[in-house]
Amino acid sequence: MSKQALQVYIKDAHQAGMSNQQIMQELTQAGWQVHDLLDLIIEPKPTAVATPPVILVENLSKSYGQVKALDNISLKIHRGQVTALLGPNGAGKTTLIRILTTLLLPTSGQVTVAGLDVIRDAQKLRGIIGLAGQYAAVDETLTGRENLEMFGRLYHLTRTAAKARAIELLHQFNLEDAADRILKTYSGGMRRRLDLAASLVIRPQVLFLDEPTSGLDPRSRFALWNVIRDLVANGTTVLLTTQYMEEADQLADKIFVMDRGHIITIGTSDELKNQVGGDILELHLVNHADAARAAVAIRQFGTEEAHADPATGIVTVPVRGGSAVLVDAVRQLDTLGLKVLDIILRRPSLDDVFMKLTGHATE
Amino acid sequence: MSNFSETSSDMVVMIGRNLLRYRRLPQLIVFSSIQPVMFVLLFVFVFGGAISTSASKYVNYLLPGIFVQTVLFGAMMTGVGLADDLSKGLIDRFRSLPIARSAVLVGRTVTELIRNVFVLILMTLVGLLIGFTIENGFGNFVLALLLTSFFGFAFSWISATIGLAAKNVETVQSAGFIWVFPLVFASSIFVPVETMGHGLRVFAEHNPISYVANTVRALILGTPVGDNAWYSLIWIIGILIVFVPLAVRSYRKIT
Hints:
heterodimer, A: alpha/beta, Rossmann fold, transmembrane helix (chain B)
């Protein structure tokens, strides 16, 4: 074996996860001298040994009669990541979450969470995951404390441990003052916080959040985002679904965009935005009815078709060329007598990404 | 903890939670108690004179029947409660927890059993106030109440199956009572079946509710029980054998 071949051999061995000591042992047994090997072996530290994904979905389908809610979906999610499933109603996000949390049986395909099969090891899996959001609720006739103690008991904590954990969570979620009030008196934001707390009773390995902030006012939404960020900072793996682009943008490391039972693209928020390329020119028209005409007028500046929304009077088109386009567009609109309230050149939002990928808006 | 003690602990927690709900919403108990009490008073004072029965006083004939009717209507609350939890998303939460698949259903049916026993005791007290007498010994009276409660428990499982299938409170309320009403009235609960027309009478005689009502009445009044007790037990066990697995199965398969 030449020295070069030896180098390749060692590299492969490292990648296979063997330690320097093991490689050394093997090669010396094959007749190599230790001093020949030293400089070759010590230098390349093996790159981090790939940990198995915490969520692994392979060829998953779910049908209701003729309707395919999920159509041959595969995905991997690694520990410590925050992943968002982004898509409009009916995209299949909730169906996927329900399968991952053992609430729904898949029609076909393989699904494991933390190495446990969602069908075979369902009961074991339920003991290590948390679920919160639109379809997992808390009991509104009980107090916050009673709810948390009940869920603690149902996770098989002892009475004392359940009580102690409830106190911790009430403190963590800033609900101490409301602890002994019945949930009916809680605000929407408080309920969601308690709901989230209930899913954390056992410090789950994976936390599933199904539309965690839907229906909340912006302030409560923002507060809940901070709570979720704190959890993530402490290493919880989170999979959340959302219809809000901004939410995925704010919280997620990685975004899976879903539409009609398929995953149509994957990436970080920036990667997705780069798929649109360039900037977005956005017009707000005085006369909403002018939207279609304006779209035709500014088509020439865009890299793609302009999108007009007659309901809001907003027209968008992806452009390249920076502020020069802005000037040209204003001049063109002026010539045609189309009055604008506002004209903006901005970075693409995830809405634009969705529009580009699916040809239709998210809502 | 062993699996058995975990499962029983799950059930105890669920019963505790359901009872706490009743304490928080006392109107549920109040209304489900007022109705049977009202039935007793109306039947005794309005129909009492017109209906002639073998019992010395109509109230003694009627009360055992009203007991059975009450637990049946009470049992229908099982499905209503489950549908309520289902529509609010609580069932999903429970299903995502590592608890026994039967815990939520057993918790609910046992809760309604406890509530029924409470209501039966209340009705007995009201009955005693308007002239009801325990003629056949306290032991037999308790036995009658036990049989009544057990029958209600079996019906709870039918109601649970309906509740899980219908999934919304209003549907369960109407779907639950629509078939119970004719069953209750075409039985020996209010009037002796001998007074009914032939076809109806054949139906009423074989109605499980009649078997139970006859047994309960015989135990309380001290008349011969006959085969009624056996038929009652067979019906109760039969209902449980069919509907417990059916309810648990639909609980597991909720989509």
